[in-house]
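Quick one, tokens below. Sequence please?
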């Protein structure tokens, strides 16, 4: 069964407490929180303060996806806000290994996010150091975009690398995940599905989460 990580970016922020309650009552495993700085990506979302509020509503894993430059400057702040896992973008980190060490030394699980143009081979020398690869299946910055088909190939390549080395690293797919394409994403080797619009804009979000959860 896949891990389901609804992205709060698609939630109604006027009703954030209710949206969190809905996720808590659902089969969702993780809360996916998208942080955008208007520099690494062409959009601004929210910061640690919202993570802190969300944290007070849930015991589930808070999976924080940093789409920001200089993530090292903010890692501790997100830890203090209640993040359990922190993913940084490979494209934003000159000293990626240092960022990973920092996240782990703060007591969080470490994730590396890769954009659609970044080959999985670039993960080769850090794969054994991390807990999670957040593979972008859209160009980061906005919810509600269309899944980029070439991601399927990248999932298979990454799954092969992980299996060959006997590692235990999650493959999280982020962007354009739907009830329709989710089965093939899982079949290709992913084990975590992020879903924003598919969950929050559906008529029955809890039922949609159950459908995604019951795949394979
Ligand atoms: C995109 C974010 C995603 C986004 C996914 O930059 O990283 O997590 O919220 O949204 P959907 O599922 O609507 O594509
Ligand atoms: Zn994300």
């Amino acid at each position: 069964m896949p891990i389901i990580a609804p992205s709060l970016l698609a939630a109604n922020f006027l009703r954030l407490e209710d949206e969190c309650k809905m996720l808590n009552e659902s089969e969702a495993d993780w809360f996916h929180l998208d942080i955008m700085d208007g520099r690494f990506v062409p959009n601004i979302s929210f910061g640690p303060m919202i993570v802190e509020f969300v944290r007070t509503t849930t015991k589930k894993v808070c999976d924080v996806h940093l789409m920001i430059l200089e993530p090292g400057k903010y890692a501790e702040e997100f830890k203090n806000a209640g993040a359990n896992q922190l993913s940084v973008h490979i494209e934003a980190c000159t000293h990626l290994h240092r960022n990973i060490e920092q996240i782990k030394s703060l007591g969080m699980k470490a994730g590396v996010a890769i954009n659609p143009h970044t080959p999985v081979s670039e993960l080769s020398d850090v794969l054994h150091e991390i807990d999670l690869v957040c593979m972008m299946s859209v160009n980061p910055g906005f919810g509600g975009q269309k899944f980029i088909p070439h991601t399927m190939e990248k999932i298979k390549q990454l799954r092969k690398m992980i299996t060959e080395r006997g590692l235990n690293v999650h493959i999280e797919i982020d962007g354009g995940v739907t009830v329709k394409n989710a089965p093939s994403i899982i079949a290709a080797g992913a084990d975590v599905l992020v879903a924003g619009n598919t969950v929050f804009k559906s008529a029955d979000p809890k039922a949609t989460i159950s459908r995604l959860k019951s795949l394979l």
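The two ends are 6 Å apart (CA to CA). The helical segments are 16-25, 48-55, 75-81, 96-105, 151-164, 182-188, 197-200, 205-213.
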